[in-house]
Design a protein that fits this description.
By secondary structure, the chain is α/β, with parallel strands linked by helices. It contains 24 helices and 31 strands. It is flat and about 95 Å long. About 40% of the residues are buried.
């Protein structure tokens, strides 16, 4: 009968495993019997039944016996017996506590089961990791040759199983191309852990096919263990997460390169000597000295607090942005020029140097073996008297955020501008900005980046415990204090606005993890709340042009659902193209659509609370599959939502505006698309009432364009800046970035100037985030 969950021996064994996790597969015997009932129909335990023979009814005597469960037919027969017993009991007892068919499952050890295999040699005599006084930080990566890892899922399961005895913590990514790990291991079992990762199969090892000799430069071990008390108070990692991803370092390549061909792996002491010689030659001003080009392949927030002398940072926001920067930097450099690259642990340089050699034809490329971590350890252990050529803090990807190598303070505090070496994330979960911030500002702002975020943390009751405090902060008292420290009305407004749903905060975090270079493009709490409220005051029909990762979509959809309830549309069915509360979202980017549709799917199934946020958090582990097909639809509380993949959103909007389709007009059109064609969107939406109803709103995002519209308004754009820039590479890159921003600011200013003079509409520009124009169609 299909209404029963377990209709096979395999399914039943799986169920038993959930209750008896300590039992090993095939080491026990399963059998079943009918339950023993008391006079009220309650199921008794075997002990209760044995001690109260008078309670046993005739239908429960030993003649019913116990059945061995060895085949699927045995399982089905047992369920049939339970059903027949239940029906007889119901017929013979008008009132009973027995509400459903019941079976008693007996689990006994199989005397014929083979003995468990002996433990591997690296576990024999291993001390208890729970007694370790310290934890050791380590990292490693591996690119196995010959196609890499054939089955990442099973490899991830294998790593979890083999590393469980060590009580290790960390974050590990497994993909077809290899393994990337940052971990924290109890120091007293460190040797055992290293053996587990490196020993050959004939010596009891199981990981030589993915790790072993394929771990470039072995395992990077932090030279200074962390005291256990400190580690538990502020753990670098809270659990061991082993996740399968499409790549262990996202590079953006459609076809992977040959990671085995990535230039010379330069040992740390040789690297140190090369940099010393280059510095001396540079100081002497030797004209013909072949100084190497030293490239820091990390992201901008990492290089802000520490780098090697003579190094040029790539200044990328995301590793995938490296390739254009490298092409621009090295386009006029001879192919045999010496190029030295480095990163935190070495893995990114493998990909960078593979690109330099295979795609750009560079022939004299080397990389720091094991990265900054290996350099720091090697210099401390083998040449402690030498001055480190790396200055400042080595940023690391765990809760420590950085290891201080020298006392140099290279970073500039995001808040006050003073020099510092500290890196942190804003404690406001809605912001979570990664920033360089001095200790004074960190303390005064309660670990946040601004007064607004501090107010949000205080109002949400999330005030972190500060140094020297014996008790938790009194929220009411701190809230009173915060009234006096707001420095502008924007921060005050943010601090005293209602909190966003948990799912919305998770969408922001997912965007930062999956599309970090575009994380600033999310609408955010203040703007998102406004969009929701505007949608809720209409009939709930919204056209969104530019889905991105679905934050604004979710806000509009929540507002549309509220509008449906307020408009008493529950009986009218689910909203859609023909009418009712409905959000139609247009997007070109398939990856962004994949992320956005995954977020709205969670919202449609679980709502907006913590359960939805927890489910959505799994998306950050990836891999996110690019959107396939043309459209996908969801429903949330009676409101419909459709994502439509388009090549040219403006062409689609113009077609919808001119067609005689059954598409009912919208109340709101939200435009977050091509900034160079904004007036064309307004023309299409204002030309008639087929697409946007009379009195409807056109909402345009980013109309202040980082404040640069002021310069565009006052000074215009000087085309003489188009001449080739001079100066350092850093100055060139900054100027190039500024040029593009100023060009777009001029486009935005031209749009603002034109739309405010358009007699078909009236405009209110709001200084929320990057500027929001509400354009009402007359």
């Amino acid at each position: 009968d299909n209404e029963y969950a377990c209709m096979s021996l395999k399914a039943l064994k799986q169920t038993i495993h959930e209750f008896f996790r300590r039992l090993k597969k095939s080491t026990y015997i399963l059998s079943a019997s009918l339950p023993i009932l008391d006079e009220d129909g309650n199921v008794l335990t075997s002990e209760e039944g044995d001690n109260d023979d008078d309670q046993n009814t005739n239908e429960n005597d030993s003649s019913f016996g116990t059945w061995r469960l060895e085949t699927d037919e045995d399982v089905q027969n047992a369920f049939l017996q339970a059903e027949q017993f239940y029906q007889r009991h119901q017929e013979e007892n008008e009132s009973t506590s027995m509400k459903r068919p019941t079976l008693v499952i007996h689990v006994t050890k199989d005397p014929d089961a083979p003995p468990p295999p002996p433990p591997p040699p690296y576990l024999v005599g291993m001390p208890d990791p729970l007694t370790s006084p310290t934890m050791t930080m380590l990292s490693f990566y591996a690119f196995p040759p010959d196609g890499g890892i054939s089955d990442p899922e099973s490899t991830a399961d294998q790593l979890k199983r083999l590393w469980r005895p060590f009580r290790a913590l960390g974050r590990v990514y497994v993909a077809k191309e290899g393994v990337n790990a940052q971990m924290s291991v109890p120091t007293n079992v460190l040797t055992n852990f290293l053996q587990c990762c490196t020993v050959k199969p004939e010596e009891g090892g199981e990981l030589s096919h993915v790790l072993g000799t394929y771990m470039e430069n072995g395992i990077n071990i932090d030279p200074i263990p962390v005291d256990m008390e400190e580690s538990q108070a502020k753990p670098a990692f809270k659990n061991l997460h082993i996740r399968v991803r499409s790549q262990i370092v996202a590079d953006g390549f459609a076809t992977p390169l040959d990671w085995q061909s990535a230039g010379y792996d330069m040992p740390p002491l040789e690297w140190h000597q090369k940099l010393k010689e280059a510095r001396e030659a540079n100081e002497r001003g030797v004209d013909n000295a072949p100084l190497p080009i030293v490239l820091d392949c990390r992201n901008d927030y990492e290089t802000q607090v520490g780098k090697f002398e003579l190094a040029e940072p790539l200044d990328t926001e995301n590793f995938r942005d490296s390739w254009d920067v490298l092409k621009d930097r090295l386009k006029d450099v001879p192919k045999d020029a010496p190029v030295m690259t480095y990163c935190t642990g070495g893995i990114r340089c493998v990909k960078v140097n593979a690109y330099l050699t295979q795609e750009m034809g560079m022939t004299n490329v080397s990389r720091l073996a094991g990265g900054i971590i290996s350099y720091d350890r090697t210099l401390n252990e083998q040449a402690p008297a030498e001055e480190s050529m790396f200055k400042g803090v080595n940023y690391v990807f765990d809760s420590r955020m950085g290891r201080r190598i020298t006392d140099d303070q290279l970073g500039t505090c995001y808040t006050c501008g003073s020099k510092t070496h500290l890196v942190s994330n804003c404690k406001n979960e809605n912001c979570h900005r990664r920033m360089v911030q001095c200790e004074n500002c960190d303390d005064s702002l309660l670990g946040t980046c601004s007064e607004g975020c501090k107010g949000r943390v205080v109002n949400a009751g999330m005030v972190p415990k500060r140094k020297g405090e014996a008790t938790n902060n009194d929220v009411d008292e701190t809230r009173q204090e915060s009234d006096e420290v707001y420095t502008n009305v924007d921060d005050y407004s943010s601090g005293y606005s209602s909190s966003s749903p948990s799912l919305f905060r998770q969408i922001e975090l997912n965007t930062a993890a999956l599309l970090p270079s575009g994380a600033h493009m999310v609408s955010g709490a203040m703007q998102g709340s406004l969009l929701k409220m505007l949608a809720s005051q209409t009939s709930g029909r919204v056209l969104e042009i530019g889905s991105f990762t679905g934050y604004a979509t979710a806000c509009f959809l929540e507002g549309a659902a509220i509008a449906g309830e307020l408009g008493e549309r529950k009986e009218a069915g689910i909203g859609g193209r023909e009418g009712g509360p409905f959000v139609l979202s247009l997007e070109r980017d398939r990856r962004a659509l994949g992320i956005a549709s995954a977020h709205i799917k969670v919202m449609s199934e679980l709502g907006l609370d913590e359960d939805a946020a927890e489910e959505a958090s799994k998306l950050a582990d990836g891999p996110i599959v690019d959107f396939e097909g043309d459209s996908v639809s969801f429903t949330y509380k009676g409101a419909g939502c459709e994502f439509l993949r388009v090549n040219d959103a403006l062409a689609t909007v113009e077609e919808m505006a001119s067609s005689q389709s059954q598409l009912a007009p919208f109340d709101i059109a939200f435009v977050d698309a091509d900034k160079t064609r904004l007036m064309d969107y307004v023309d299409a939406l204002a030309s008639n009432d087929r697409l946007l109803k009379k009195g409807g709103l056109i909402i345009v995002d980013n109309v202040l364009w980082k404040g640069l519209v002021l310069d565009a308004n006052n000074n215009g754009y000087d085309s003489s800046d188009e001449t080739s820039p001079t100066g350092s590479n850093e100055e060139k890159a900054l100027l190039k970035k500024n040029r593009r921003a100023r060009k777009l600011a001029m486009k935005m200013h031209q749009f603002n100037s034109e739309v405010v003079r358009d007699e078909r509409v009236e405009v209110v520009m709001m200084p929320i985030r990057d500027g929001l124009s509400l354009i009402r169609k007359r």
